[in-house]
Amino acid sequence: MRLVVVSAGLSVPSSTRLLGDRLAAAVGRRADVDIEAVEVVELRDLAVEIAHNLTNGFPGRRLAAAIDSVTSADGLIVVTPVFSASYSGLFKSFFDVIDKDALTGMPVLIAATGGTARHSLVLEHALRPLFAHLRAVVVPTGVYAASEDWGAQGLDGRIERAAGELAGLMRGLSGVRAAAEDDLVVVPFAEQLAALSSPSGA
């Protein structure tokens, strides 16, 4: 299976890239999924081509290769720094130039980095709705890392839990136990109406 990490970090070194690498390594350690290759797409290196694609509708060579890698992956890890309480413009622009149906059914792990824990809800109010709109399948656990989280025990736990969920989806499992069909009792509408119109006590 092929795992692709999309990193929107701007600095070198980048905490955003570091988080993406740690998540990918955690997925790779899972015994229940066989990761043959991990590819990292650094959006910083594609910024000019992304801007040109937005204005002329045609991807450059490197951008086209990155889009092909992302859309043909078996699973995605997407990581963005938080700017103005949301994902970065570069991150959003990259997914804007991908065909809206290309990520349908794609297993995706969402993650973000920021300077303060106050921005942790970016995962739920920005990233998760974006990938729901693209009809990707987003794992339940998102991973946010504030500056104080690096080296903290809690971050490792979230990384491992999210990695396990992504591995499950990549194997074709939802990780969520579906209710057994026998537990669902459907009463036909006509029968419900008949019960309402019956005399009391009948």
Automatic annotation (TrEMBL):
The keyword Oxidoreductase applies. It holds the Pfam family FMN_red. One of its GO terms (molecular function) is oxidoreductase activity. Residues 1-150 form the NADPH-dependent FMN reductase-like domain. Keywords: Flavoprotein, FMN, Oxidoreductase. The keyword Zinc does not apply. It comes from the Bacteria. InterPro entries: CE1759_FMN_reduct, Flavoprotein-like_sf, FMN_Rdtase-like_dom, NAD(P)H-dep_FMN_reductase. This is Oxidoreductase. The lineage of its organism: Bacteria, Bacillati, Actinomycetota, Actinomycetes, Kitasatosporales.
